[in-house]
Amino acid sequence: MILLAIGVVVLGVFALRFRQERRRFSNGVLLLLGLLCVGGALVGSGAEGAGVEALVLVTLVLSPLLVLALACLLMLNGVVMLRREGLRLANVLSFGLGVALLVPYVLLVAAVVAEWAVLGVVLLAVVLVAAYLGFVLVAFLGYSLVYDWTTRTDNVAAIVVHGSGLLGDRVPPLLASRLDRALGIWRTDHAYGLPPLLVTSGGKGSDEKIAESRAMAAYLVEHGVREDEILQEDRSTTTRENLLFSRELLAGRGIDRRILLVTSNFHVLRTALLARSLGLDAQAVGAPTARYYLPSALLREYVGVLVEHKAVNAVMCGVLVAAPVALAILGQASWQF
């Protein structure tokens, strides 16, 4: 019952924080932690104290298995990405990280074969770090879905569509998906007599013939939007610049709130988090992405979240690695004594 009460309290805190500000990654952590506590309590409801044991068992067993399965899937996805998208750093990332995730497991096998005395310490450290990384991964994926599904798209003053690169001067499928999502929202609001202003945001890359914003605007015009209903932001090269430069354009039109950001579904949560950090009153929604591209893209976003919170993650991983070592040293000292 204690674990169930903790879970309910944590979920209550999540609900309160979610209502106050949805653009927090900590919301995802609270949601997953609350669900794990409630789930552990329900699984172990038949025996005294079994809830905590079930929660620990699920976390320590499933999280490393999740990381192992993720490594295999990333390597397979990396092969697909290389075949379809060509040899580029972003396309090698999924395969490379998949290999990196396998390294601790390979070391454990080597430890077993060599009968290292420190096997228990290494095993525990790997399990704890894997469990932590698996927890953060599930929190990221789960809350990305929750955030995207619960974002309202009605009664907005402006829709900002983020660029993602051109093929020469043409809009590729990934960017077309974002524009189509924005068009669907714009048409719905237009039907109610409240058409929001559309902003195409993206500068000109070194391999592009024109600015992304110009090609995006042309795409929207081809699909029934008037030119005077579109603002073109043609300076940005990053998501941060997308937000900052679009805010400047919209401020010139007297719009500083009720802004909707349209990006790809894998990028929606980080875009919302960045908008909050910049003080922009905007929410984000995602457009569909090709299935073969999605795992690699989600991985980059997950790594991005880890890097953005690198201090916290480094401390957590350091503590989890140091804890088994400290216990082993204390145990050895106690045995000698």
From TrEMBL:
Organism: Nocardia halotolerans
Superkingdom of this protein's organism: Bacteria
Protein's recorded name: YdcF family protein
Domain DUF218: 158-304
Record InterPro entries: Cell_Envelope_Assoc (IPR051599), DUF218 (IPR003848), Rossmann-like_a/b/a_fold (IPR014729)
Keywords: Membrane, Transmembrane, Transmembrane helix
Sequence intervals crossing the membrane: 25-43, 55-80, 92-114, 121-146, 311-331
Keyword Plastid assigned: no
